[in-house]
Design goal:
This protein is of the alpha+beta class. It has two domains: 156 residues, Ribosomal Protein S5, domain 2 (2-Layer Sandwich), CATH 3.30.230.10; 117 residues, Alpha-Beta Plaits, CATH 3.30.70. Helices cover 31% and strands 31% of the residues. Helix 1 links the parallel strand 3 and strand 4. The longest helix has 16 residues.
């Protein structure tokens, strides 16, 4: 069986971070929303026992067992006693190490496909498998915008009107930020001061946007603050860094305004190796379809 689906990117409209826990993680209050931007993921389940393979055309550095998608397939097989071969193909459209959850979303897409192919209907068990792979994976297994608590595994559906975004992703490797780095910088800057307990809100309003990880990241990479300022200058009602960065995004009144701003920003960042993307928030989980050869229609 071969299934295809979208692995949507996400942004954190709100990310409040508590103090470090005994296990090294932080308690979060995060409002996450999926986007209509994402990777195309194809999962082929063999009828026979076999290995797990993972291929990302154009990105050989992401091929193989170390990819979160491959690790998700391995965790699924171990949990549900599946030994059949799994072949994964990911067409990358979401920037990598960008704070947009691309790897976690790919992992969730693989879990959703395998659950469909193997008739696994235990959503709680699937979420446990996802959490073992990555803190954001349970969100991508969910049904849309959600407040996340704990490490990100305790999810509550959120009411978020459709948002129109322009994203600026700096490709400079010197600006790449690993999540562990961002959290460490935050702890260092707090210098032992205990932050208030993270809280979640009700209906989202643009005035709520905020990211506790942004200030320490911008302090170490001022270029991110400059990109944020460019979004405000282009008409965004609010702008901030997503997750652990380095992508920054702005909220715009509508699709036309976002596209107009994107055109102006493309001219403004010319020569700076910054990718400009336009996206909308999504309200529903992505569809999944059985793959059909392009020849099948003509052969009927």
């Amino acid at each position: 069986m071969r299934l295809v689906t979208l692995a949507p990117a996400k942004v954190n409209l709100v990310l409040r971070v508590g103090p470090p826990r005994a296990d090294g993680f932080h308690d979060l209050a995060s409002l996450m929303v999926p986007l209509d931007l994402g990777d195309a993921v194809e999962v082929r389940l063999s009828p026979r026992d076999g290995p797990i393979t993972c291929r990302v055309p154009g990105r050989p550095d992401l091929d193989g067992a170390g990819n979160l998608a491959a690790r998700a397939a391995q965790a699924f097989r171990a949990r549900f006693g599946v030994r059949r071969g799994v072949a994964i193909r990911i067409d990358k459209r979401t920037p990598v190490t960008a704070g947009l959850g691309g790897g976690s979303s790919d992992a969730a897409a693989v879990l959703r496909c395998l659950a469909r192919a193997c008739a696994v209907r235990d959503a709680a068990a699937l979420a446990e498998v996802g959490l073992a792979v990555g803190s954001d994976v349970p969100f991508f297994l969910g049904a849309g915008p959600a407040w996340a608590a704990g490490r990100g595994e305790r999810l509550t559906a959120a009411a978020v009107p459709r948002q129109h975004l322009v994203l600026l992703y700096p490709r400079d490797p010197a600006l790449a930020i690993r999540a562990a780095q961002a959290y460490r910088w935050l702890d260092e800057d707090r210098a032992g001061r205990r932050p208030p307990a993270p809280r979640r809100g009700g209906l989202f309003r643009p005035t709520q946007v905020g990211n506790d990880l942004e200030a320490p990241c911008v302090a170490r990479h001022p270029a991110l603050g400059a990109l944020r300022g460019m979004l405000i200058g282009a008409g965004a009602s609010a702008a901030l860094m997503s997750g652990s960065g380095p992508t920054v995004f702005g909220l715009f009144a509508g699709r036309a305004e976002a596209r107009r701003a994107a055109r102006a920003l493309e001219a403004a960042v010319e020569g700076r190796d910054v990718e400009v993307l336009v996206a909308r928030t999504a309200q529903r989980p992505p569809r999944m379809a059985t793959w059909r050869s392009p020849r099948s229609a003509s052969s009927r």
